[in-house]
Design goal:
This protein has 320 residues and is an alpha/beta fold. It folds into two domains: 121 residues, no CATH class; 177 residues, 3-Layer(aba) Sandwich (Rossmann fold). Helices cover 34% and strands 27% of the residues. It contains ten helices and 15 strands. α2 runs antiparallel to α9.
């Protein structure tokens, strides 16, 4: 029987304070985690099916083509820790080859994990499983129920790109530290990374012809209305998604289509026409640049697999 633990609770006031700090800054912004309410998560699943959105299918192709090599590099019997597990589908595809001794699915809310982990436990009854609700972007202090030995952190989908390079380094250092027990480092990291490529391909992936990504971004305003009691009018905003070559990152913004004042409990902000709310970054790496980042974080013996176009890569790195 799978276990479920809500390790950290985000208090409503903490959420409000974080959102208002971003919305009232000189350049308004929000954390990308607020894109993923129930509807936002469904819209993102739709994005992954779009012809323009290459990351999901390209990463899946790498795992399919190089699965035996990846399994040989990683080994079996690990404690497989799935960061941002969602529906757990990507990790589940690795179960037959990796044969983990334990599977720990990590997401912001344990409620997101119950059905998926419950179904997996029925399919793979021999694997010890648990779902853990925590914001791993701020801390990787895992509960005692997660085995210390041979931890393999699994972070697919190029989500590492949501961190700035400096933030990514700190996060990777935390992963490395979480692979250490009784003074010994073992285990490692299996991670998907989106690679630098033509601007036209990147722009299309984050501003598709059907407008699904626009809907995903605009839905953030409905989520803010719910969380803050605000009165954002979705019709008065436009999606903007583009590659910033100088910073090597995709940026997503919401742009005011007209002058307007948005109200929330005990506050308001005027947005001039053309003013933006910065909602997400997705940094793109070169192969060498990311391997060097892993080395700076303390990882060793990095193995890389990629697709023929060199659009995406999967890395395995040893913790020690």
């Amino acid at each position: 029987m799978a276990q479920f633990i809500q390790l950290t609770e985000q208090r409503q006031q903490t959420i409000v304070d974080e959102l208002l700090a971003g919305l009232t800054a000189a350049r308004a912004s929000t954390s990308p985690k607020y894109l993923y309410d129930a509807l936002g998560s469904k819209l993102f699943e739709a994005i992954c099916e779009l012809p323009e959105y290459y990351p999901t299918r390209t990463e899946a192709g790498i795992f399919q083509k190089h699965g035996p090599e990846i399994a040989q590099a990683v080994g079996t019997g690990s404690t497989l820790i799935d960061l941002g597990a969602g529906n757990c589908a990507k990790a589940a595809q690795l179960f037959p080859s990796l044969q983990p001794a334990q599977y720990a699915a990590i997401d912001i809310s344990v409620e997101f994990l119950r059905d998926a982990v419950g179904r997996l436990q029925q399919q793979f009854p021999a694997i010890d499983m648990l779902g853990v609700g925590m914001d791993f972007s701020t801390s990787l202090a895992l509960p005692d129920n997660v085995r210390d030995e041979n931890r393999l952190f699994f972070y697919p989908g190029s989500s590492i790109g949501n961190f700035t390079p400096d933030e990514a380094l700190v996060f990777l250092q935390q992963v490395k530290a979480a692979c250490t027990h009784d003074g010994v480092s073992d285990g490692g990291l299996l991670i998907g990374v989106d690679l630098l490529k033509e601007k036209s391909l990147l722009d299309a992936a984050y501003d598709d012809a059907l407008g699904v990504t626009a809907s995903f971004n605009l839905n953030l305003l409905l989520h803010l209305n719910h969380l803050l009691g605000a009165d954002f009018d979705v019709r008065a905003w436009r999606h903007r998604g583009f590659f910033n070559a100088a910073l090597s990152r995709i940026e997503m913004h919401l742009e005011a289509a007209s002058d307007q004042t948005v109200h929330w409990s005990n506050g308001e902000r005027h947005f001039a026409r053309g003013e933006r709310i910065h909602t997400e970054n997705s940094y793109k790496y070169t192969r060498q640049g990311f391997v060097e980042l892993l080395a700076r974080a303390g990882f060793e013996n990095v193995t890389v697999w990629s697709d023929p176009q060199l659009w995406f890569m999967v890395c395995h790195a040893h913790a020690g």
